[in-house]
Amino acid sequence: MTERQTQSLTLELINETAMLQFGNRIAVAISRGFEYALDNNPLVKVAEPALLIALQGDLGAGKTTLSRGLLIGLGHVGAVKSPTYTLVEPYDLAMGQVCHFDFYRLQDPEELEYMGFRDYLVESRLCLIEWPERGVGFLPEADILIEIVQLDEGRKVTLSGQSEQAKKIISQLDREKNGVNSAD
Ligand code: ADP
Ligand code: MG
To answer: What is the mean pLDDT of residues 52-64?
Structure first.
């Protein structure tokens, strides 16, 4: 019964640095979740589809910036290119393959079939997707939806999710926001 409950978190991030730092914190919360799963059953994660994070917001909202903070937090060293033209940028990180997508230029969601999107979903541990609305019909429901709204100063960022993994990650970030430093 509680399964479909949505966990959400909203915060205001005043500038680009705050956005990058928040990406880092999401990375830490995700890594913690994966360690937990691996501890409990080393075989579980291998066959599971990727954790899906959808990033919604207008052009210039900060989707790529947040993705950059997240990828760096997961251990990526170097540049994070916007996948606007390539559609996907894969990263080989400690946790496994992480894919950063941008569907802005998708003409038709069917193109996802040609690019082998399903294989990416199965082979990756984590998929970050900018402009998920352009992939409707082919994209499974995201574990975590991140909505970014531009304010006069900074951005309002809202995370929401319903999967067990999503709820763990969001509540972890919520506890940090409230200054509670809990390890569980
Ligand atoms: P998108 O991928 O959504 O099109 P980008 O991540 O490329 O957007 O960011 C566009 C601009 O917004 C960049 O110049 C970046 O520095 C700025 N930006 C990102 N996050 C914030 C924030 N929290 N407050 C103010 N400016 C931000
Ligand atoms: Mg972008």
So the answer is: 98
| Predicted confidence (pLDDT) per residue in 108-162, tens digit | 999 999 999 999 999 999 999 999 999 999 999 999 999 999 999 999 999 999 9
Digit-coded pLDDT (tens) for 154-176: 999 999 999 999 999 999 999 98
The domain spans of the chain are 2-177
**Residue 51 CB burial class (10 angstroms; 0-12, 13-18, ≥19):** buried
The reply to whether ligand 1 has any atom less than 6 angstroms from the CB of 15 is yes
Dist CA 76 CA 69 (whole Å): 10
Q: Provide the pLDDT confidence category of residue 37 given band limits of 50, 70 and 90.
A: low
Give the C-alpha separation, 104 to 107, whole Å. Answer: 9
Angstrom distances, CA of residue 173 to CA of 67, 97, 166, 168: 16, 23, 11, 9
pLDDT at 4: 76
CATH for the stretch 2-177: 3.40.50.300
Residue type, 146: I
Whether ligand 1 lies within 6 angstroms of the CB of 65 is answered as yes
Q: Could you tell which of 10, 11, 14, 16 is best to mutate to test the pocket of ligand 1, judged by most ligand atoms within 8 Å of the CB?
A: 16
User: Is ligand 1 within 6 A of the CB of residue 24?
Assistant: no
